[in-house]
Amino acid sequence: MLWSLVESQNKNKTNISYYVAFWAFNPTVVAMSTRGSNDNIITALVFVTMYFLVNKHYVTSALFYGLSVHFKIYPIIYALPLYLYIDCDKRAIRAN
User: Fold this and answer.
1) Cα 22 from Cα 3, distance rounded (Å)
2) How far apart are CA 85 and CA 37, in angstroms?
3) Range of 69's domain?
4) pTM, 2 dp
5) Percent of the chain at pLDDT above 90?
């Protein structure tokens, strides 16, 4: 999922493996995974939200975002940027 998200945003399709490896082998992520924290699940849900949002599947994106906020409250800070992204996308469609 992370690979697809980075690939969709990277126009020249280079260094995708470096970006994904930087996240996957980040010592903080590894340490949190080994101690039994569910923060990685929340992060994965936010990545899935972003993936569906970029691919314009707004309802599916909203469901995953709601699930991530249900697990913990801190993904709520992404509400404003997500709204602005959708609003700008809708305005670009209306302008054409």
Assistant:
1) 12
2) 30
3) 2-95
4) 0.67
5) 19
Both tokens of 77, joined, read 């800070």
- Asked whether 36 and 79 are in contact (CB, 8 A), the reply is no
Burial pattern 83-93, b for ≥16 Cβ within 10 A else e, equals: eeeeeeeeeee
Q: What is the pLDDT of residue 67?
A: 93
Please spell the DSSP secondary structure of the chain, one letter per residue.
-HHHHHHHH-TT--SHHHHHHHHHT-HHHHHHHHTT-SHHHHHHHHHHHHHHHHTT-HHHHHHHHHHHHHH-SGGGGGHHHHHHHHHHHHHHHHH-
Per the structure, the count of domains in the chain is 1
Residue 56's CB: how many other CB atoms inside 10 A? 11
